User: What shape does this take?
Amino acid sequence: MALRLGVLEKVATVFKRHGAQTIDTPIFELKEVLTGKYGEDAKLIYDLKDQGGEILALRYDLTVPFARYLAMGKVSSIKRYHIAKVYRRDNPAMTKGRYREFYQCDFDIAGQYDPMLPDAECLRVISEALTSLDLGPYKIKLNHRSLLDGIFAACGVPHEKFRAICSAVDKLDKSPWDEVRKEMIEEKQLDGDIADKIGSYVSRQGGNELIHELRKDEILMKQPAAVSGLEAMELLLKYCDIYKITDKVVFDLSLARGLDYYTGIIYEAILTGDGVGVGSVAGGGRYDNLVGMFDSKNKAVPCVGVSLGVERIFSVIEAKLATKGEKVRTTEVEVYVASAQKNLHEERMRIISDLWEAGLKAEQSYKKSPKLLAQLQHCEENSIPLVVILGERELMNGEVTLRVVKTREESQVRRENLEKEIRKLLGY
Amino acid sequence: MALRLGVLEKVATVFKRHGAQTIDTPIFELKEVLTGKYGEDAKLIYDLKDQGGEILALRYDLTVPFARYLAMGKVSSIKRYHIAKVYRRDNPAMTKGRYREFYQCDFDIAGQYDPMLPDAECLRVISEALTSLDLGPYKIKLNHRSLLDGIFAACGVPHEKFRAICSAVDKLDKSPWDEVRKEMIEEKQLDGDIADKIGSYVSRQGGNELIHELRKDEILMKQPAAVSGLEAMELLLKYCDIYKITDKVVFDLSLARGLDYYTGIIYEAILTGDGVGVGSVAGGGRYDNLVGMFDSKNKAVPCVGVSLGVERIFSVIEAKLATKGEKVRTTEVEVYVASAQKNLHEERMRIISDLWEAGLKAEQSYKKSPKLLAQLQHCEENSIPLVVILGERELMNGEVTLRVVKTREESQVRRENLEKEIRKLLGY
Assistant: This one.
C-alpha cells in the first residue's frame, strides 16, 4: 500500500496540475446502466444479489459511470479525475498485474470545444504521468477511428462488419498478422483479398510523413471519413509538437482499441524499456456519444479521456525495487521513544505526548519494560531515523539521549530542547 | 469530494503521526466470514449474486476484514490504519450522514501488550483527530465491558441475558431510561426490580471519583469482573491524564456499544457543541477474541481500535460552511492562461506547456478564440489566483500581462521571467 499510494499520489498530482477536480461515483450502478456498453466483456460484470429494491452490479470501469453522472446531472462541461477501484470477473494473473479488483486512474475532459485541444492535453497528461513515475522509455501510439473506418471502406469491408474487423485489428498488439488475418477470414467471413488490403495499411506507422503518404493514396482519399481522420491526426501531431511530446508519440495504423464507444482519436501507451513486457499502461480516446446514451433526449456531451492502468505500473515498480533490493518504508515514523531501564513507561508517555503535540511522527513500545536492544532493533528494521532514549539518571538531570539510528551517534539533550533538536536532525 | 478528501487527509495525518501503516482488503469477503459477526444487523449485508465460484458479500465494516487478514496472514502484531468504504443496506438519511456506501476511518493496534497502553493511545488518536478537524467541543465516553458484566451480575441479571441487556443499555444515548427499562422488562423478560437496580448504575458518570464510589459498593465488589473492570478504568484514566486528555474523557456507565465482539474498554466520541446533533462521530474498543474466530487453532490476537464516522463529520463541516457562506475550491489551479485576441491558442499552448513543465498548476480554455471576459470570469468563479494574458503586441515584445485576479492588479512580465514572477506572487 505504501508503494501504491506513492504511485497514486504522483498520478493525482499530474491530474491536478492540469486543473482537474475529482468526483466519486458509487461502487455499484444499476445493472441496466452497464448493459450494452462492453460488448463480449459484459460477462465479466459482477452482479449483486437481488435482495429486493434495485438490481445492481459493480462498476466495470470509471468511464461509463462518469458518462451516466454527466447525463443525470445535466453537466455539459467538466474536467475531472477519478482514482478508484473497478471490478471484473476475469482470470487473475498476479505477475501481469491483472486482478478482479483493481485501481483505475481516469482523467477526462467533457465539453464542446475546438478540435484536438482537449485531446492533445490528454496525451500531455499521459506523458507527464509516465515521466513522473520514472518507468523508463515509453511510446504513445495514436490512431483515429474515422481513419480506420475510411481504410475499411476503401478496402471494401461491408459497413456492418466495421466494428468486428476493428476488434480483430485490435489484437495486433498481441498476435501476429497471420492470426488476425485468419480471424478476419474464418470467423468474420471477410474476403482474403480485402483482409490483405487491410494488412497493407495496418502494418504502417510513423509521424507526419505517414500522413503525407496516405494523402497520396487516391482510393483512400475518396473516403470522407479517411480525409477527416487524417486532418484530425495532422492537427493533433502539430499540437503534440507544441506540447513537446513529438518524441513520445507514434501514429500507428494498427491501433484499434477494443471498446465500441470511441468515436475519434484513440491512443495507448506502452513501455518500451528492457524486460518490462507488461503491455499497455495507459489508454483512451474520444467518445462523443456515450453520454447521450444516458440522456432521455439523447443530448450528447463530447468527451475525451485517458485511463492509467496503475496495477501494471505497480508490478513494474515492484519488480524494479526487487531487482535493486530496495524496500519501501511502510510507516513514516520520525522518532521512536525508548527506555533504557524498567518501568519508565509513564515518562515515555509524557515525552511522546509532547512530540505528538508538536506534530512529530512518533511511536513507542506498548510494553511497560521493553528491552533496549529490542527497541533499537525495531528502529533499524523500520528505518526510523531517530530514537530518544530515557534513562533514570538523565531524567533526574532533565536530560535525554538522542540517537541517530543510522550512524549510532548519540548526544545528551535538555528535555526542553528536545523537539528543536529533533527537527534540526530531521532537517526542518 | 474536495471537502471529503481534506477531512480524510487530516485523519490520515493523525494516524500516521502515531506510526500506523496502511493496509487494504478487498471490498468483498467470503459470505461466511461476515456471518455471525453483526447480530441482528446481518440483514443489512449486501450479497453478491452467485455467478459461479465463491459466495461473496460486500464488507460491512473494516474490523472483521482486518481480523480475518491477521488470522490468515498469521500476523501477531501490527498498528494499521484503513480508510475505505463499507456497505450497508440501511435506510439512508442524507442529513444525518447515513448512506448505504460510506467511508470508515479505522486505526487499530493488534498485539499482546501491557494493559491500557495501546487503549490509551487510541483515545489520544480520537482526541487529536477531532481537534485537528476543528469540530468544536467534544467528549469521549468511556466504559468497560467487564464492569458492565459485573454490574449486571450484581443486579441479578441471568448470565445468558448479559448481551441482550447490554444492547438495551446501548440505546440510552437515543432513548430515555423509561423506554429502555420497558424494553428490558417486556422484550427481554427482566424483573422490574433488577431493571431498576441497573438503572441506578447506568445513570452515573464522572471521573476518578466515580471509581472511588463504586469501590465502596460492597455488592458490586463481590463480582470479580467488576473489580478487574474498575482496575482497568483506573489505569486508563491515569494514562489519559499523562496524555493530557482528561478534560475530553468521561467515565459513563451508560455506554454499552452495540457490537458483540468487544471484550474490554469501550468508547464513543460525541460532539457537544450547539446545533451539531449528529450523535457519535467516533467509537471503538478492545476486541481480544475476534481474530481467534478466523484462526484454525483459535489463536487469539488481542486488538483495540477506533473507527471515525467521517460521513457525520462531513455533514457537520458542510453545514458549518453553508452557515458561513463559504465555498470549497474544487481544483487547485494556480494560474490561468488567457488570450486577449483571436487565434492565439498556439501561443497559449506554448506558454502553458512551459508552466506545466515547471510544475505549476495551470489551465486554459479549450477554445481557439475564447472571449477575454469569459476567461476572466472563469478565474473569478473558480478562485484561480493568477491569470497570464496574451496579446499580440506584447508577444512581439517578448512580454505577457500577469494579473492578480482578486485585486485586478496587472503587470507586464518578460516571458523568460514568467515562472519566477508567478512563484513570487504565489508566495513560494
